[in-house]
Amino acid sequence: CFHSRTARSEEDRDTLWDAWGSWSECSRTCGGGASYSLRRCLSSKTCEGQNIKYRTCSNVDCPPETGDFRAQQCSAHADVRYQGQYHEWLPVYNDPDNPCALKCKANGSGLVVELAPKVLDGTRCYTESLDMCISGVCQIVGCDHELGSTAKEDNCGVCSGDGSSCRLVRGHYKSQHASGKTEDTVVVIPYKSRHVRLVLKGPDHLYVESKTLQGVKGELDLDTSGQFHLENTTLDYQKLSDKEILRITGPLGKFHQLSSDSVIQYIYYQPIIHRWRETDFFPCSVTCGGGYQLTSAECFDLRSGRVVVDQYCHYYPENVKPKPKLQECNMEPCLASDGYKQIMPYDLYHPLPRWESSPWTACSTSCGGGIQSRSVSCVEEDMQGTITATEEWKCLYSPKTAILQPCNTFDCPTWLAQEWSPCTVTCGQGLRYRVVLCIDHRGLHAGGCNPTTKPHIKEECLATVPCYKSIDTLPVEAKPVWHKQAIELEEEITVTEEPTFIPGPWQPCSQTCGAGTQQRTVKCQVLLSFSQTVADLPDDECGGVKPASIQPCYRTPCSGVSGQGKENKKEGEEEEEEEEGETPEREELHDWEYEGFTECSESCGGGVQEAVVICLNKQTREAADQSLCVSSRRPPQLLQDCKTQPCPPRYDLIDGCSKNEEEMCFWKKGLAWSSCSSCGGGVQKRQVLCKQRLADGSILELPDTFCPSKSPANQQPCAKQECPPHWVTTNWSQCSVSCGNGIQTLQAICRKQGEDGRYWTIDPKNCSLIARPTRIRPCSLRLCESKRPSPNPTILAQRKVYIQWRKGKKLQLVVGGYGYLLPWTTVVLRCPTRHFRKGHIRWLKEGKPLVSLPHLSITPLGYVKIQQVRASDAGIYTCIAGQAQEHFVLQIIGSKQKLSVSESWLLANGQQKVRQPDVASAGERFQELPISLNQYDSIVEHLLELKSSVQDEKDITEKPHSSERNRSTLEDERASAELSSPVVLIADTHRLDEITHNLSEGLGGPHGEQLIAQLLSELTMTQGETNDSTLHPPESAESSTQEPLLYKPKAHTTRSRNPVIIQRPRKVGAVPSSEMIVHVGLPALLQKPVASLELRCEALGNPEPSLTWTKNGKELLYNSRVGLLPTGSLRIQSPSKVDEGLYTCTARNRLGSTSLSSWLQITGKLLPTYKLKLLKLFYFFSCGLIRWRVDPWSPCSATCGGGSQTRTVRCMRGPEGRSREVESQLCLDTGRRPSDSRLCNLLPCARWATTSWGPCHGQCVGPSLATQHRHVYCQNTNGTKVPYRMCSGLHRPSSLKNCSTEGCALHWRIGPWTQCTATCGRHGFQSRQVTCAHRRTGKATREHHCMWRPRPSSWQRCNILSCGRGECRDSTRYCEKVRQLELCPLPQFKSRCCHSCRNT
């Protein structure tokens, strides 16, 4: 009966059924079982539908020891007799007729019996399916474990997945193991892989080894075909006659290694466990005013849920890294406290970072396919045009440019040998020849082939016909001498297909008697094989020495004996049939004779002499060339003994000195000296021994006292010869690429040792004859992308006028303005650019290319440097960057010459314009830019006159004054040497134009003088920092375009600094006329009564300085009329005559102090102009009265380990140049006394030491290029190893270098493509074998050795054509297997195997 019911559903109420009962207990506790629910019919009639329904349950995997459910049911019948016998029953799987019947087979026999009509509920219908048997009927079960569900697992094992969580791995492998090894691991199947299929072709056996994540190993022995259980899956193994097939459904619970020594084809699905994940936006590039921010991507481990390094995600080609996203941020305007900042578009105000690439390097090979590289980095540019490197993620919004590209891909020239000529003889042994040409990739005869590999052009050949053997069988050596020589000379040189010198016959002798000459022609000729004709060539086409074309001859003596004088044949053309009687007359002129003996080989102890043989002209009795005498008749060598007396003891010099002659060791000292100890001047040594040679030739070594002569010197100074230059390596360069795979190069500089022993860096051209060290190592960055076009170049000119006020060491100027400089000043003229390489900047002077002079040069960074400028350097300098150009007018103070331009520069309208030829195209018309040459000469002259008038009358002033600024002790070495006046005044051109425009009457009137004085006071107020930057640019100035900084107070600086008082011009119209405000540093001239006077003193410093006032050098007494304001400024109510005097404001903090003064004068009339000038400029050009002066530091007392330095510190009084030393107490108010001692050379006395280089078998980093290593360690003077930090201040030797090895002559070897897996559709692909192999031996090696070149693809898609809807055809070659496995009912197989599945 039914004990529990659920409420009847709406469907049940409409029918005659009662509600469903509760679910029954599951038929299994694990592995997937079935549970049922019942309902009853409430009518006596038949109800429509089923009274039972099922669902799956216990869908958890069973423990491994539980065993198979169907096998358990078979084994339960083992204790029941069948036909009178007990059997061990084994299950029969996958019965196609009735999969839900319990069929078992008896172990050991072929007996198969159906032991039960139905298996228990929950038993799987098939081993490879989730479908289960319920009440004897096979029910469909989806991967979601729901009955009747059609949900399927994808290839990755994900239910209803899209296949994106795994990757298909397929290929084939052929063993490359060494001889004697029985097997080779060829395939490793990773953990959790699925749908594994391997095919082993050949007679060899397949070995399977498993390995767990914990490292536990196991072996699987496969002998016979069948199914095997493997952890939580099954393994299907088939052993056929010509191959073995292995299938594993998976997922694998272990790593599996499969080994064999035959070809293995494999395919499996590997899980992807690392994925890219997009990050949040990075912080904004600015805090206000409009910036940008980007996202990035990080590699995420799906198993552990942690972020890992990017290399894990790069392992899977399917993982595509997301591109960064860019968005605007912080667009709100900046607050007033941050300064004024205008919001403009990105490309104008705040340019985005961009990729910057270097030029391509030279191609790695001249032919045969090489690579060239370049470096790409992410850079930012500010408004001043300063470009700085920044983090790469800022540029990832745009694709990165390529860092590698192929080059010189054409084939190298090769030798091409033509057909052999016929044999030179018709019988016996002869020679044959051929032409060998060097053919390039265009098929032309050219040079460039390796001469050592040239095929030979001549070889011996043997005719099949034997030669007739004459009766005269004597060899040449046995014949008379004259006959032997005739045979030697008769060989005629014939024309061959290789260019050869061919001599012609000798002409008759020029004299009928006596000595004469005879001539012949010698031509360079070649045999043209295709026409069998002889062609003449220039002599330089033939190799070897050209035979003589003239020789002496002699017929008969001129005594009247004619004999056979008609015979004129000479050595070069004697015929074989020449008569014997002719030879003596030819030889009468020259013959061999003895002439004395050579010197004795020893001066004592026994030696030998050799008789001298000469060729003598019988007529003149003078020695002649030996070639004129017959070599076969040369007399034998004669020897005789000499100097047999014993030798006295003597000094003998070792190492290169001849020990056979007594005195040679003393007179040829240079032979025995060792090499000089150093090239810049050193010593050389030799060994000196006392020896005696006895008559029998033996040598006796004796003490020094036995040698009567003075002992030669064994040491001497070497001649100071110039040291040769050599390469010195420095640091690794940046990676040659900013994306993909590149290389790093060890930079090298050319250095040379001077006569003083110091090393100097010189021009690399001086080391061009020495092999430059090439040390490279690979570097790998992210994948590359394309680049956007670069904008047009611009020049960041500055419209400034530079006026040099006093001598300075070096001035930094920028194009776009004018310069008035003192002679003998060093000038650097810069041309700051944007979007243009500084090395490509061009310079002109007066419209012509600027030529380097001994004192003038254009640096590689694009600026002009003039050492000690002179009058000839004045002129118009033009900087050209692409289509942009700017000018700079340079004039020399004191030069009488006015600048002018040539007639060709003057335009028709009379206005002066510089006509600059456009460097892009000389044929185009000149570009014109107006520039006025002498526009500001008058203003500059008045400023210089004003300066000289002040200096002339400076010393007449009685009132003390000071504008000197004390500096911190870090700068005290140069503080006292700095003058208070500026080195250079910098004015804006528009300010000078304004003054010129306001002076209608010219500069000579009183109003003009007042304007000039006011201009001078304005220009000198910003002297401090303007000249600091103009004279001493920052260290980065050599590589950046930084303009001179004007003085701008920094209110929020954080670093400590000395106090400074700000000087400002008088403000006109800012306050009521009854009140007067004068900034300290300016004179206060009261021509009419005022209600109050404020002397304003504004000071900066860190810590904030305190302000004090003095009057006429004494402390100021305050009262109700004279008092301080809260800002520290001084206010005087109703000023009168008693208030006249010099008021000085002093600003102090713990770092120092500074003062500035104003002269207050009450007057009713206007002062003379020159006194007005003096009072205004008095404060700007005053010298310090009392100050500290320091001398340079002495040399350090120790070179390492800690020493000390001292210097003299004095208190000086008076203006610079006329100062004198006073008591130290007088300087205490000006600041703390500078230190007179300090420590130096604190580094410990240690040095770097190295071991010898290891073998050259490191990682291959290029063609025939590997690496070798050595150990680098730090040791002290005793040779004991010490920690690395003790050598940290010294240059550390390299521990890695490149070396040449044959083992790295590797390349990618590519096999043929396999047959496509489909004839049409989207699923076809084919593969090929790609291995890293040795070029010469062909032996394969590990792939990472070839990774310095891109790896060719090993698979590709193929036959990607539409299969067409109307035609029923197969689109894969596996359709026969599909039909055998009864997979046709499945839609994905039926669509691809339409033809094979049409009858199923």
Briefly say what this structure is.
The chain has 1400 residues and is mainly beta.
How many DSSP helices?
Answer: 14
Uncertain stretches: 337-349, 469-491, 560-587, 655-671, 906-930, 953-979, 1024-1053, 1067-1071, 1165-1184
Distance between the first and last residues' Cα = 48 Å
- Radius of gyration in whole Å, from Cα? 52 Å
Outline, from the CA principal axes?
Answer: flat
Structural class: mainly beta
Tell me about the biggest sheet?
Answer: 7 strands, mixed
Share of helix, binned: under 10%
Q: Let me know the number of strands.
A: 91
Averaged pLDDT: 76
What proportion of the residues form beta strands (DSSP E)? 25-35%
Strand order of the largest sheet: 58-57-61-62-54-52-65
GO molecular function: metalloendopeptidase activity
Protein name: ADAMTS like 1
Region (Disordered): 560-590, 951-976, 1024-1059
InterPro entries: ADAMTS/ADAMTS-like, ADAMTS_ADAMTS-like, ADAMTS_CR_3, ADAMTSL1_dom, Ig-like_dom, Ig-like_dom_sf, Ig-like_fold, Ig_sub
Protein topology:
Blueprint: H1 10-14, E1 33-38, E2 52-57, H2 69-75, E3 89-91, E4 102-106, E5 112-116, E6 123-124, E7 132-134, E8 137-139, E9 166-173, E10 184-189, E11 194-201, E12 207-211, E13 217-220, E14 226-230, E15 233-239, E16 243-248, E17 255-260, E18 263-271, E19 274-278, E20 291-294, E21 297-301, E22 307-308, H3 311-314, E23 326-329, E24 354-357, E25 370-373, E26 376-381, E27 387-389, E28 404-407, E29 414-417, E30 429-433, E31 436-439, E32 458-462, H4 481-489, E33 500-503, E34 515-519, E35 522-528, E36 533-537, E37 550-554, H5 583-587, E38 590-597, E39 607-617, E40 623-624, E41 639-642, E42 650-653, H6 664-667, E43 683-685, E44 688-693, E45 699-702, E46 715-717, E47 726-732, E48 741-753, E49 759-762, E50 776-780, E51 794-795, E52 800-804, E53 810-814, E54 818-821, E55 826-830, E56 833-834, E57 842-845, E58 848-849, E59 856-858, E60 864-866, E61 875-881, E62 884-892, E63 913-916, E64 927-930, H7 937-952, H8 972-975, E65 984-988, H9 989-998, H10 1006-1021, H11 1023-1031, E66 1057-1062, E67 1075-1079, E68 1084-1086, E69 1092-1096, ...
Parallel strand pairs: 52-54, 53-55, 54-62, 67-69, 68-76
Antiparallel strand pairs: 1-2, 3-4, 4-5, 6-7, 7-8, 9-18, 10-17, 11-16, 11-18, 12-13, 12-17, 14-15, 15-16, 19-21, 20-23, 21-22, 24-26, 25-28, 26-27, 29-31, 30-32, 33-35, 34-37, 35-36, 38-39, 39-40, 39-41, 42-44, 43-46, 44-45, 47-48, 48-49, 48-50, 51-56, 52-65, 55-60, 57-58, 57-61, 59-60, 61-62, ...
